[in-house]
Design a protein that fits this description.
18 helices; globular; binds acetamide; binds zinc ion
Amino acid sequence: MKLKSALFALAALFACACTRPELKVYLSDSGLEKELLVWQEMLARHKDAEAGKRGACRTEMGYVRIVSDREMPAVRRCENEAAADLVIALDDGMPEEAFRIADGRLTAGSPAGVFLGLQELTLELLSGTELDSVCVEINPEFAHRGALLDCGRHFFSVEEVKEFIDILALNKMNVFHWHLTEDQGWRIAIDKYPLLTEIGSVRHHTDEARYNDWRDASRDSLQYGPYFYTKEQIRDIVAYAADRHIKVVPEIDMPGHMLAALASYPHLGCRGQGYEVWTHWGISPDVVCLGRESSYEFLMDVIDEVLALFPSDMIHIGGDEAPTVRWEECPDCRRFMEEHGMKEAGELQKYMSRLVGDHIRAAGRSCIVWDDAIDGGLDTAAVVMNWSCRPGRLDAVRANGNRIIQTAKYNCYLDYYQTYEPLKNGEVDMGARRYLPLQRCYEFDPLAGFSEDEAARVIGLQGNVWTEYMPSFDQVEFMLLPRLTALAEVGLGTKLGYDDFLTRLKEKYVPAYEYFGFVYAPFALDGTEPYCLSEGYKVKY
Ligand code: ACM
Ligand code: ZN
């Protein structure tokens, strides 16, 4: 083992010139072949390295992307346990995602735990720790550890979505929340309603304005789209994520954030006409009409195709930011309310959530909603994503007894600025006027103020990347890292204090970001190369 460690060190020094040392792996269970293969594939995914593009380069938005010269040993399977450098074994007595690495042995409760352990090994080996010295045991505290990518406001290619999943995997996260429908674009092919992608995935221009200033905005003259994912592409992404033990939770946001659908099929809206795929950001008063059976039929049909496409045990049906103004004016909605004994228009959303939720539950899955859905009343069976930090909402959810996923915007919204003086610090001018520094992510306590019973209903947390002001994926990476790493540690329950985190960030995570060529923000990292935007760069919203 000593000789091998020396070889690793030599390889790090003469990375390009030498053949890489081998790391021989023995699998004590043949059911783990897939995990080993995927790990090999991940380690080979050294961005641009094969094309010889190592070092630092500027990205589309002007960030620096570093692809380091570090090498990982070449991982090979071996059949002889005694000759192996690393033995991987399962231990039924361990919790499913738990793993332990010590004395050249990785033991885990299930293949998912093995996969998490291999991510830890990536971090340890890239930080220069010798395999024999790696000694770590993790039993993730929360079952749901994830991140949302908004592909409605801006679209990201299949390769970029896979890179998002790679970033989740490296951080031992296990849920990819895929926000697929928005006022500004419908991104998922639905066979029964082809206009959703023919019309709904295109917007005619994009306003160059901040969130609420669009009425005075100038506009670019560029058509955005058609951009959407085919079913084949979605199956490919779901399989890619599953190989990495990551569940893809699709979100079809209803009844609000549906203008792209209304533009495609105007009968879905209370006004029945005059809709277009939105070219600016904000909350649209036009939502799905909940007074007509045809709307419910549409929603159920879409959900049926989603259920067939995504094996996830959870389907997200949105429910955020749905104004009631159109329902109050609409004769069909008013009649429907009367027939169903509803006193307030908000109850229409409760009716819809229960109907669609029951449909999802009848298929053996759970349904997730944003916390806004509690306002008109909510079924206890729904899982609630707590995001809005609106007074009273979380209390109402707690009293109602729902399971909760924590994504409080002041700790988990990764579209907020990273520094206090963003423009002075070279941050791109984003619409969000809020500030979420790394430390606030790290110090997030998803169970703060909860009783033991309530805490048992908190199934996890996630970071959200809303992309109004992120036209390209390098911007997404820059906003994700390192804040996602901080949230990941909250989810794993491995926190040892912010100073300790900063040290490990520099020693363990940054080398991995740079091995894979992920763009990251330098603000909290003393001594990193300063990042700056390329001269004359102008952001188009
Ligand atoms: C949200 O941020 N509207 C869930
Ligand atoms: Zn209506």
